[in-house]
From TrEMBL:
Pfam families: Vps52_C, Vps52_CC. GO terms for molecular function: syntaxin binding. The keyword Protein transport applies. It is found in: Golgi apparatus, trans-Golgi network. PANTHER family: SUPPRESSOR OF ACTIN MUTATIONS 2/VACUOLAR PROTEIN SORTING 52, VACUOLAR PROTEIN SORTING-ASSOCIATED PROTEIN 52 HOMOLOG. It comes from Astyanax mexicanus (Blind cave fish). Keywords: Golgi apparatus, Protein transport, Transport. Belongs to the VPS52 family. Residues 315-537 form the Vps52 C-terminal domain. GO terms for cellular component: cytosol; GARP complex. One of its GO terms (biological process) is endocytic recycling. This is Vacuolar protein sorting-associated protein 52 homolog. Residues 78-245 form the Vps52 coiled-coil domain.
């Protein structure tokens, strides 16, 4: 700054400027940095260029310094020229600082005000939360108090007469008040004591009315019923009455229950006793009087009414048995459901209550059943009763009602042994039957075998629903005895032919009856099919054609045996025999076929079976005559003149077809 004062006159003097870090004349300039600046300047392109051209650095430095001084003076003049603007700018900045200061004070005031407002809002929020909590608490207390008051208040109209619909609603309300009062008493609520006396009096009044009402309903059951309609359904809509008694007065509830059990037990007993007696009046009475027949015939006639009924009037026992037990099934299921629902019992308790109501009736049924079974020889009726019980047992199981299970088992334990005993008596009766005591015999089916077929087919068809192995075993034994009986009967005929006809007729009849009702693959059907087939084949091969053409058949059999041995020449001297056979067959075969047809018509009761026998016999005729032709065509017999009299085989077949029966 001293340099500037020396260069200018007094009029041009200006205040000294504080250049700060730009003042390189200050003593604070750090000389250590000079080297750094020198190094940086040496790297300058102009400096490097000056060094390369050999310029004097001192002279160059002075030029630079002079240039800098000139620029500095120009810059100072510019600052002085703009001093007024700078002063004005300074004043403006000062004014702005003043304005900003006032704004700062204003904003500080706003901030202070906002802080106080936030505090007030927070206070109001806290007060609002507190008021909301107090409101909720008061509302909760009001709700509970309202409920408490509603539960405690007893209307002046309670209790109305039982016959009115309002009584049930009022009874529900009273029951709720009683339960609520009990709950309050456990909590030792003082308000409970104010209403306890009123609630107790209302409870006594309601119990008295309910007791009188239900007892009147139960007593009304004792009046004669129309069409035997059990009226307990009228009590179901008053189920809550008993529930109220059970909850509030168990003594009265027990009285109601005992009275119902006693009344309904008598009603059911009277109802079924009357119903059973009325059924007995329409039970069948057999006018044939088979009870006086010998055991061998009586037992086998027990099934006659199923197929050849000769009854004066009424229905068989098993029909009445079904009606009786269907009524028991229907009423028993309904009663069990009613007891479980109305008296609110389940499991063993429900079963015990059911037995209290129906036990006397079931005992009467078992007693009557025992009396009937002990003197019954009708195995079909007993077996039908067994299957009726099995069917009803399945129905109750499907309905999930176990009330009658023990009764079903008791009846079955009574019926099964009797049925097996009757079957065993049948078996023994057939085994002990003497054919010689049965009177005159003929080849038609015997009445005992017919009765067996009817009996066996009935048992087999019934047993298919609920198969029983013991029954199948007994039927197998009975079938064996019947087969033996038929053989013993056949042995009474002197001729083999009559024996075969008798066997075929009886086997065919039994098979036909069995196939009408039993399955084709049943043991009985298969057994008689095999017996019939065997006897029919024997009849075809041994009887009819051996009677009429025995000599020709014998010759064919002998010749075939010799042909197999190669010894046919042994018969070359039998020209006379062969001639008689050829001419005898030619003259009599038509008569033989006609006689065969008539004999079959007379001998066999089943024309279809007779047709089969005729067809088999005619087939054998063709076979034997074809064999006769074959034998006479051998070299041993080719020279016989009688060969020209043989009937043409094709012509014989055509003629035989004319005699084929068309049944």
């Amino acid at each position: 700054m001293a340099y500037l004062q020396e260069e200018k006159p007094d009029s041009d003097l200006v205040p000294a400027l504080n250049l700060g870090d730009l003042d390189i004349t200050t003593d604070e300039f750090i000389l250590d940095e000079v080297d750094i600046h020198i190094q940086a300047n040496l790297e300058d392109e102009l400096v490097q260029e000056a060094l390369k051209t050999g310029v004097d650095l001192r002279q160059y430095s002075k030029q630079v310094e002079a240039e800098l001084q000139r620029i500095e003076q120009a810059s100072i003049k510019d600052y002085i020229k703009e001093s007024q603007n700078i002063a004005s700018l300074h004043n403006q900045i000062t004014a702005c600082d003043s304005i900003l200061e006032r704004m700062e004070e204003m904003l500080s005031g706003f901030q202070s005000d906002l802080s106080s407002i936030s505090s007030e809002i927070q206070t109001l929020q806290q007060q609002s939360v507190s008021m909301n909590i107090r409101l909720k608490n008061r509302q909760a207390v009001r709700s509970q108090l309202s409920q408490l008051v509603d539960e405690l208040v007893v209307p002046s109209t309670m209790i109305s007469p039982v016959t009115e619909q309002e009584f049930l609603e009022q009874l529900h309300e009273l029951n709720n008040k009683i339960n609520f009062a009990k709950e309050l008493s456990f909590r030792e609520t003082l308000a409970c004591s104010d209403i306890q006396d009123i609630v107790d009096r209302l409870k006594i009044k309601a119990v008295s009315k309910i007791r009188e009402f239900i007892l009147q309903k139960i007593y009304s059951f004792r009046k004669p019923m129309t069409n035997y309609q059990i009226p307990q359904n009228t009590l179901l809509k008053y189920r809550f009455f008993y529930q109220f008694l059970l909850a509030n007065e168990r003594t009265v509830a027990k009285e109601i229950r005992d009275e119902y059990v006693d009344t309904m037990s008598k009603i059911y007993f009277s109802y079924f006793k009357s119903y059973s007696s009325r059924l007995l009046k329409v039970q069948v009475r057999n006018v044939l009087g088979i009870i006086y027949l010998p055991i061998s015939e009586y037992i086998m006639t027990t099934c006659i009414y199923l197929y050849f009924p000769v009854w004066s009037h009424g229905f068989p026992y098993e029909t009445l048995f079904r009606s009786q037990h269907y009524a028991l099934l229907d009423n028993g299921c309904r009663e069990f459901l009613f007891l479980s629902d109305f008296f609110m019992v389940a499991g063993n308790s429900a079963l015990d209550l059911f037995n209290s109501v129906m036990g006397k009736t079931l005992s009467m049924f078992l007693k009557n059943m025992s009396a009937y079974v002990s003197d019954c020889y009708d195995s079909i009726a007993v077996f039908l009763c067994i299957h009726i019980i099995l069917r009803f047992k399945a129905i109750t199981a499907k309905r999930n009602i176990p009330a009658l299970d023990k009764y079903w088992e008791a009846v079955l334990e009574m019926l099964w042994p009797r049925f097996e005993l009757i079957l065993e008596m049948n078996i023994q009766s057939i085994r002990n039957t003497d054919p010689q005591k049965l009177g005159v015999l003929d080849t038609r089916p015997h009445y005992i075998t017919r009765r067996y077929a009817e009996f066996s087919s009935a048992i087999v068809s019934i047993n298919q629903t609920f198969p029983n192995e013991r029954t199948n075993a007994l039927l197998g034994q009975l079938q064996i005895e019947v087969e033996n009986f038929v053989l013993k009967m056949a042995a009474e005929f002197p001729s083999r032919k009559d024996q075969l006809i008798f066997l075929i007729n009886n086997y065919d009849m039994m098979l036909g009856v069995l196939m009408e009702r039993a399955a084709d693959d049943s043991k009985e059907v298969e057994g008689f099919q095999q017996l019939l087939l065997a006897r029919t084949q024997v009849n075809r091969t041994q009887e009819f054609w051996e009677i009429n053409h025995n000599r020709m058949i014998t010759f064919v059999k002998e010749s075939e045996a010799l042909m197999e041995k190669g010894q046919l020449d042994k018969l070359k001297n039998g020209e006379v025999r062969i001639t008689q056979l050829v001419r005898g067959f030619s003259s009599s075969w038509k008569q033989s076929v006609e006689a065969l047809s008539q004999d079959v018509m007379r001998s066999f009761t089943n024309f279809k079976n007779g047709t089969s026998i005729i067809q088999g016999a005619l087939t054998q005729l063709i076979q034997y005559y074809h064999g006769f032709h074959k034998i006479l065509s051998q070299p041993t017999f080719r020279s016989l003149a009688v060969r020209s009299e043989l009937i043409n085989l094709h012509h014989l077949m055509v003629e035989v077809k004319k005699h084929k029966p068309n049944f």
